[in-house]
Amino acid sequence: MSEEQRRQLQQQLWNIADTLRGKMNADEFRDYILGFIFYKYLSEKMNVYANKELVEDDIKYSTIDESSEEGKEYLEAIKEAAVEQLGYFLKPSELFSAVAKRGNAKNTSLVAEPEEAYEAKGDNQADETQESTFILDDLEKILRNIEQSTMGTESEDDFDKLFEDLDLTSTKLGRTVKAKNDIIAKVLGHLDEIDFQLENTEMDVLGDAYEYLIGKFASGAGKKAGEFYTPQEVSIVLAKLVTTGKQRLKSVYDPTCGSGSLLLRVAKEVKEVSAFYGQEMNRTTYNLARMNMILHDVHYRQFDIKQEDTLEQPQHKGERFEAVVANPPFSAKWSASDLLLTDERFHQYGRLAPKSKADFAFVQHMIYHLAENGQMAVVLPHGALFRGAAEGHIRKYIIEELNCLDAVIGLPANIFYGTSIPTCILVIKKCRESDDNILFIDASQHYTKDKTQSVLRREDIDKIVSTYRHRTREDKYSYQASLKEVKENDFNLNIARYVDTFEEEDPVDLSAVSKGLKGLEDKMKITDKIIIEYCMELGIDTPF
Fold first, then answer.
1. Dist CA 531 CA 262 (whole Å)
2. What are the tens digits of pLDDT across the range 147-177?
3. DSSP letters of 388-411?
4. d(Cα 181, Cα 183) in Å, to the nearest integer?
5. DSSP E strands: which ranges in 351-493?
6. Could you point out which of 191, 270, 402, 454 has its C-alpha 20 to 30 Å from the C-alpha of 75?
7. 292: buried, middle or exposed (CB in 10 Å: 19+, 13-18, 0-12)?
8. Residue 216: in which H helix or E strand, if any?
């Protein structure tokens, strides 16, 4: 697939999403369109897999008669293999294409008896011109069946209540059952026309399109976007930082994983990631992360995404990861309960992050989960670099006692959706090569504007990463500060203390300024004289 074809696919999917755009806000129609795309992906994956299993029998999966004894035997055997390999199962009649075709087929019984056909569904205004077959009940049952096909298996947790945000009874889809059925049938019909090219294993066509859609939804979601999406350019920077010097990773972990895009971005920077781990508090976003993993062909045994509050209810206790990345919610509130002082994530510091600002609580949590040979990168609000009290104490401990802070990188303001505050990246390694200094990079002025949003260009990303990897010093951009220097600054990490970006102004020619003022004074005298003459002609008092 060419780049142009890839863009066309992305635009096709966005156009289909537009079918729902006028009916609900961005985060609501996001859940529907991404959910239906995911259902189509599972169906096509199931169909491809089953057809390969049936090659020797010279039959196609979609032609199996589900009611015959022979058909039932085939389905039972395929189900057992599919649940083991894919993690789920769909019958031929449950495949996306079959449902889409039923929903968009003419149904003469509905035309003849529209009232009776919809009355049981609560529709009192059935349209005699309606030709769509009613599919909502079937579709809802199929989505539940996908989840239930995993019960008692290894993949159960990965599919549990995965489709719960697809409420097919919601009035946001339409006031009547007929209206809901029509819009869903229309969306499924449009999606059915698109070839996801799942057999093209060389290119992650659908995965790229899915990421594109998530980004498009984020750009229109305002403050809510920060709950599930890190701008792609920032994700690339974080991913490149934690994979420096690595070709393969045993594990990557994101304690605030959102839609999982950052975890998947890390995988693109290396040849292989053996396992993905994440935790997400928001239920809807947690579902999106699991879908995103499966849709990017990450096997269900290779990822472990949990839903809970990371700071209060950590789900990966005692585990260590080779790469740790995160874009936690900025200055979030948390309990900061004294009971957490005995928690092994925090106890060695002797202090907890303040209740109103959990930034360093996330940092402590991530350091705890970082393997000895690992590397982590975390995005924080700029204030975390210099705020005092408990945060200053924790910062000092990280630098002086742990000596694991490798770099501080300043990012442009207004780079994240929903907030314009300036941010930074802390890069932390437990086994540092340059353990006698900290690299400071001021990339805050290196960006371009996209409407109201600041965006890192490819050259900006490359400059940050190259400067970090080679630890180069560049006037007004980067500086290696010794630990002694940082200590003398009372462990204040404000980048302006280390990277001098002061620009000298051109000298002022005072003689020229004086002459200019003298010229203005002369002109004012002439203007005043003219005004006086006009006032005398008019017989009125002068203003002087």
1. 70
2. 999 999 999 999 999 999 899 998 888 889 9
3. -HHHHHHHHIIIIII--EEEEEE-
4. 6
5. 370-381, 405-410, 423-429, 437-442, 448-450, 453-455, 478-482
6. 191
7. buried
8. helix 205-219
- Chain centre to alpha carbon of residue 310: 17
CB 518 within 8 A of CB 512: no
- AA identity, residue 40: K
Please state, in angstroms and rounded to a whole number, the distance separating the CA atoms of residues 32 and 540: 76
Whole-number Cα distances in Å, 449 to 372, 415, 419, 453: 39, 10, 15, 6
Residue carrying the six token digits 């371009």: 448
Strand, coil or helix: what is 368? Answer: helix
Domains of the chain: 3-212 (1.20.1260.30), 231-493 (3.40.50.150), 510-544 (no CATH)
Percent of the chain with pLDDT over 70: 89
Which pair of tokens denotes residue 65? 């008669």
What residues contact residue 77 under an 8 Å CB cut-off, 6+ apart?
none
pLDDT score for 121: 45
Distance, CA of 101 to CA of 18 (rounded, Å): 21
β-pair partners for 453: 450
Cα 137 to Cα 29, 113, 122, 171, 427: the distances in Å are: 20, 19, 13, 16, 51
58, exposed or middle or buried, with CB in 10 Å at 0-12, 13-18, 19+? exposed
Kind plus residue range of the DSSP H or E element containing 116 = helix 114-119
The runs of H, that is alpha helices, within 482-541 are 483-488, 510-538
> What is the dihedral sign for C-alpha 283, 235, 366, 388?
negative
* pTM (two decimals): 0.85
φ, ψ dihedrals at 475, nearest 5°: -55, 130
Bridge-based pairing of strands 478-482 and 437-442 is antiparallel
d(CA 463, CA 445): 12
Q: Which of 412, 325, 334 is nearest to 377 (CA)?
A: 325
3-state secondary structure of 156: helix
Q: Are 326 and 297 in contact (CB under 8 A)?
A: no
pLDDT of residue 127: 43
Rg (CA), the chain: 30
